[in-house]
Amino acid sequence: MKDKKVLNVYSEIGKLKTVLLHRPGKEVENLTPDLMDRLLFDDIPYLQIAREEHDAFAKILAKNGVEVLYLEDLAAESLEDSAVKDLFLEEFISEAKVQGDKKRFIVKELLMDFSDNRKMIDKMMEGIRKSEVKNYNATSLADMVESRYPFVVDPMPNLYFTRDPFSTIGSGISLNHMRTVTRRRETLFAKYIFKYHPKFKDIKIPMWYDRDEPTAIEGGDQLVLNEKTLAIGISERTDAESIEKLSKRIFAEGESFETILAFHIPNKRAFMHLDTVFTMVDYNKFTIHPEIEGPLTVYAIKKGNSNYIRIEKETEELDKALAKYLHLDKVTLIRCGGGDIVDAGREQWNDGSNTLAISPGEVVVYSRNHVTNRLLEENGVKLHVMPSSELSRGRGGPRCMSMPLYREDL
Ligand SMILES: NC(=O)NCCC[C@H](N)C(=O)O
């Protein structure tokens, strides 16, 4: 029955078979300097080039035998039933904070007017400007006060970082509660996909986390090191409480995972997730940003009696601790920028430590991080290099832009 499974991720490096991407859309052109901070961008990517770069990424994956699925297609295909579509629209409009019956009605009508669901999904992701709504009148006090604000529905420019709103862990899904309001609506697409898409609706998918939980966790912090070990960042985006909850659920369901390593990394914009400073590239090789090595504390969470967990603070150095938990003689930590403070700072900012493994020792990387890329090659890692001028302006690299649904077991 194993080949019938649609979700199977028991490592970071097993041969990648199916992955979920989002091709950047017009939401990126709805960024303005005033919105950048709240919408988590540091600059405005040039959409045409960003799309070319993204297509180059998808081509590398397809050429290497990976089935590439798009979030926007799966979301549209999940809404065939009109009652489901209605529910989805109502939820989306509420979460987009469209207030007042009249405004809700106008927005719903605008979205329902699209001839096909795929175009409607594109519009939802892109955001709706006030200027696009026929006869838009400021009726509420809030509307009048915010009359210069250009959107009725905010754009969702972070959607091309498909790694974050949910994660495949083993045969289950962690449907994440995103830290920031701007990214919270992203998980709504996944909620409907896993419930209603023909690919998933008839299988029982264990849910390790739910978007309605009060504490935050994001996919960039969730790494599957092997079939027994996860690493999860306690970070700017993920709370320690969320990791405890997720651990208890995973241990209770009888999955193969036995240890969850919680990596406490500094709270800093540049290191918003664990995968911005640490990724796995081979059985015994990892990239790491040298700036986190000093302050890093690792806790090992293990299954205890009944519904309890045991937590121990790790006292070994990171390489020794990893070797211990992964049952290896030795692991190599490949330092971003070669450990030079300037090269490391610059290349980590542009996701030099954020590699996507497509099989053991074979990774996709951004072209601009030439110092780190050379080091990876010197350490025997095979590189697939993608262009990276525009996509990198959103502060995420190849791992952040891809959500594996299926990896071959090691
Ligand atoms: N896993 C990742 O590190 N994803 C990158 C997310 C970048 C996005 N602009 C954000 O701040 O959430």
UniProtKB/TrEMBL annotation:
Coiled coil: none annotated. Gene3D superfamilies: Arginine deiminase, L-arginine/glycine Amidinotransferase, Chain A. It is an enzyme of class 3 (hydrolase). It is found in: Cytoplasm. InterPro entries: Arg_deiminase. It holds the Pfam family ADI. Keywords: Arginine metabolism, Cytoplasm, Hydrolase. GO terms for molecular function: arginine deiminase activity. It comes from the Bacteria. It catalyses: L-arginine + H2O = L-citrulline + NH4(+). The active site is at residue 400. Pathway: Amino-acid degradation; L-arginine degradation via ADI pathway; carbamoyl phosphate from L-arginine: step 1/2. Belongs to the arginine deiminase family. This is Arginine deiminase. It comes from Acetoanaerobium pronyense. The lineage of its organism: Bacteria, Bacillati, Bacillota, Clostridia, Peptostreptococcales. The gene is arcA.
